[in-house]
Amino acid sequence: MRCTTCLVAALAVSLVSAQETVLGAYIFSRHGDRTAKSTPPANLTELGYEEVFTSGTYFRNRYIASGATNRILGINSDIVKLSQITASAPVDNVLQSSALGFLQGLYPPVGTQLGTNTLRNGTQVQAPLSGYQLIPLQTVETGANSENSAWLQGSTNCANAQISSNNYFTSTEYMSTLNNTQALYNRIYSDVNKTFAQSQTSYKNAYTIWDLLNVASIHNSTATAPLPSDDDFDQLRYLAFQHEFGLAYNNSEPIRAITGSIIAAEVIEGLNTTITSKGKSKLNVQFGAYAGMLSFFGLANLTNVNNDFYGVPDYASTLTWELVTNATVTSTSWPSNDQIYVRFLFHNGTTSNTSQPVEYPLFNSNRSPLPWTDFVNGMNKFAISDQRSWCNACGNSTGVCSEAYLTANGDGSSSSNTANGSPAPSSTSGSGGISKAVAGVIGAMVTLAVILLIEGAIVLLGGFRLVSKKRLTGSQSSGSTVQTSSGKA
Predict the structure, then answer these.
(1) Pairing relationship of beta strands 358-359 and 340-347 according to DSSP bridges
(2) Global confidence as pTM
(3) Which numeric CATH code is attached to 1-113+127-171+242-489?
(4) Domain limits of the chain?
(5) Is residue 152 within 8 Å of residue 458, measured between CB atoms?
(6) What DSSP line would sit under 150-162, residue for residue?
(7) Does the N terminus or the C terminus of the chain have fewer Cβ atoms within 10 A?
(8) Per-residue pLDDT tens digits for 169-221
């Protein structure tokens, strides 16, 4: 994906002021460069480590350092204050390692002078690694094990979302592309035959095929390493992106974008906490898979702003929401909600001083930044903000969801259905989004009944079956198929 557009000056309304104050920010980032998905386990490479560290350093220079260009009000510049920052990532080797690398750039080691503690008896204790700063990393279920999951929505445990994703494999668009591109995949089979069987080399596995070749184009230094021609490689990339967006979002089936709905609620909650705490909570950093990014792009109508939003974001890409105001903020005064705005920025790939995020308008509004209330109302049109709404939208009714269905008027109905486009209550208080704890509960909702439902739907709708990547690697001559997804990071 290449974002080439849109300067903020072209927007209809823009909050530009020398007095603008950044109250807080929420950063959602993809991991850095990694090994191929088709040869698990995937690992963060040295290049990937450098990418996320570089991005973290950029955001330090933007939000945290004493001379930061958009310094967050009152944030500690050198030694991290843990109450000011929340960092999270799924239980996934690549994503958690990326988050740690990003945080090292955000708050680097403070050296022996600042990283020294004097005990009561006069002994001086220096922090290891030249004052390396420890920032706890919370775990979230959204995107868990995304590098080794075999299915798009596998990490959400949402039955309706998985069924909706399967619908893509029976769509006219999919079948037409599958048939029209087989000659291309036959042509490049010799480049991937050590990993994929002939029967697996098709548009059905568009992303993992392109991913394998993309990793080889970056890391395989052998002069005779097989790679397609430049034209074929570009076409394979386009097909991979088309495949993944089809699995991540569908305008007529918004439940397919459940991951983006959860991200939206988490962003509302994070920014709302900054407001309700009057700036005590300042910065959220979350790492996740590109599936959630694609889902959010579709839900927030960003694809109408720039066609590049149909593409899979590059390694270390970031989505950023800034909470800003033009009101005077002091130690004794805090702006009212109608004085607070939200600016959305996106950067494709590693962020640096020479390649910075670009501002985009959300929700077809042609305005940026948006007033806080308008932002919340726009996000709540698709945000999944509580357990009961999640259960209702996903069609899950067992386990914890059986209790959720018994709430709300005692009849098992849900008062909101954000997945179908009905707005949830406006979040200008502390109830703005799904909490990390609730996200964890949601992630634990898989039951045998739901698994059977999903598997039955997969067989019924598409005649597909899921195959682990380990089996894929070892079954070059088999006829089995692997469904890969934008649920992968």
Answers:
(1) antiparallel
(2) 0.80
(3) 3.40.50.1240
(4) 1-113+127-171+242-489
(5) no
(6) SSTTTTTT-HHHH
(7) N
(8) 999 999 999 999 999 999 999 999 999 999 999 999 999 999 999 999 999 87
